[in-house]
Design brief:
Oligomer: single chain
Number of strands: 15
Distance between the termini: 30 Å
Radius of gyration: 20 Å
CATH architecture of the largest domain: 3-Layer(aba) Sandwich
CATH class of the largest domain: Alpha Beta
CATH topology of the largest domain: Aminopeptidase
Strand content: 25-35%
Number of domains: 2
Length: 298
């Protein structure tokens, strides 16, 4: 009955989907994404992605995926254990295996994300070696062709970087923002990445007697809820309510030109940022998400 951690196979899909449906059985309004992505995860595994299952007597009873986001940052997701086998060490065995895989590829830090209401997931992550790091929330300002900022907003990566480096948002978020390539993953926002986004997508610097806010667009993708497409903004940071109003109006106008159905902007889960986003009528997600971090150098 000892579990074996092995690479996931296409024929594991039935077992994984079956236990994934029961993982959040107490929250019927929140569907698990794993049944929709498992097949594509297995098909796309390669040098920078590794999907594993915990095998008991030939049947998958747990799932975990490791992804290399950058040369030294790994992301861990999809950590699920069959409710019938919880408390037996399957989660820990899979995470340790994935930690080793990431270390072999040069990762010095690993992170994962857990919904703030997911007590079991938070407990499992801490038990597996992750430490609580930061919290964020998504805002969803509606695309609007008539949105017009009260102050100037420029595509200026140098000004945006200068504001970001000294901002309360960067301190709270440990320097993290939505990853440019992976949905539902966060990685360090660097000067180089901000410059690339300014060239390939859009960077926003709010100017009002100095730079008072910043944001950056990473692209568009299918809405996780299945309702159209979203324009995604890796992070939003601002100094006060007035700067927030101009920043979100710039985002509304930008999204309106992208033929999308909505937006998703990551903001730090601080009372000020959440309250000021609400004050400028940027619709907010119902709950924050937590990011936990593991030191992979030991």
């Amino acid at each position: 009955m000892d579990p074996t951690v092995r690479k996931a196979r296409p024929d594991d899909e039935g077992a994984v989907v079956a236990f994934a449906w029961d993982v959040w059985a107490d929250r019927p309004e929140t569907a698990d994404y794993v049944p929709d992505v498992f097949a594509s995860w297995v098909d796309s595994d390669g040098p920078d992605q590794h999907t594993v299952v915990a095998d008991i007597d030939g049947t998958a009873a747990g799932l975990c995926q490791a992804v290399m986001l950058t040369d030294d940052e790994a992301w861990f997701q999809g950590m699920r254990v069959d409710p019938d086998h919880r408390g037996t060490g399957l989660g820990l065995a899979m995470v340790e295996h994935c930690f080793d895989w990431a270390r072999e590829r040069g990762a010095t830090v690993g992170r994962n994300m857990v919904f703030s209401w997911n007590d079991a997931g938070l407990g499992q992550s801490v038990a597996a070696g992750f430490e609580p790091d930061t919290a964020f929330r998504f805002a969803h300002p509606e695309p609007r062709t008539d949105a017009e900022p009260d102050t100037d907003v420029y595509n200026d990566p140098a000004a945006a970087w200068s504001y970001w480096t000294a901002s309360e948002a960067r301190s709270h978020l440990s320097g993290l923002a939505l990853d440019s390539d992976r949905a539902w993953a966060l990685s360090e926002l660097t000067r180089e990445r901000l410059r690339r986004l300014a060239d390939d997508e859009a960077v926003f610097a709010v100017s009002d007697d100095g730079t008072t806010g910043m944001a950056c667009r990473t692209g568009t993708r299918a809405d996780p809820s299945g309702d159209g497409r979203l324009a995604e903004y890796a992070v939003g940071a601002w100094a006060d309510r007035e700067a927030a109003a101009s920043l979100f109006d710039a985002i509304r106008a930008d999204a309106a030109g992208l033929d999308v159905d909505g937006t998703r902007v990551l903001l730090p889960e601080t009372p000020r940022h959440v309250a000021e986003a609400a004050a400028v009528r940027a619709e907010l997600a119902d709950w924050p998400d937590f990011v936990l971090t593991a030191d992979l150098t030991s």
